[in-house]
Design a protein that fits this description.
Structural class: alpha+beta
Order of helices and strands: EEEEHEEHEH
Low-confidence stretches: 115-120
Oligomer: single chain
Shape: globular
Number of strands: 7
CATH architecture: Roll
Number of helices: 3
CATH superfamily: PDZ domain
Helix content: 10-25%
Distance between the termini: 22 Å
Radius of gyration: 14 Å
């Protein structure tokens, strides 16, 4: 996990997840919620945000080993902008079969606190 360049002024982290195919799934070890087509009031991390959020991380799975956490907001996946994506499109970009490594740019609220702004 490394600090990434800000996207639109938002500080982000870079996370690389190597897929571990299991059965018919992509083998990333996490679930997502949200999207511009979903009801943002059901988002437990940011009830007014239509972004794509990590809802669950499988213990000892690829995402957990890479440092992904529930509540992380996914801004990009392998260069694809997910800030205005539907839920279905986000799944499509995250599970592309030809890509063995998924490079995510994520926003995590505590990034702001660790960058010298303890009042947030």
């Amino acid at each position: 996990m490394a600090a990434g360049s800000p996207i639109g002024g938002i500080p982000c982290l870079l996370i690389e997840i190597v897929k571990e195919p299991v059965g018919g799934s992509a083998g990333l070890g996490f679930s997502i919620g949200g999207g511009i087509d979903q009801d943002p009031s059901k988002n437990p991390w940011a009830p007014d945000d239509t972004g794509i959020f990590v809802t669950n991380v499988m213990p000892d799975g690829p995402a957990a080993r890479a440092g992904l956490n529930p509540g992380d907001k996914i801004l990009q996946a392998n260069g694809y902008d997910l800030t205005m994506a539907t839920h279905k499109d986000a799944i499509k970009y995250l599970t592309k079969k030809k890509e063995q490594v998924i490079r995510l740019k994520i926003f995590r609220p505590d990034i702001l606190r660790t960058r010298g702004n303890p009042s947030m």
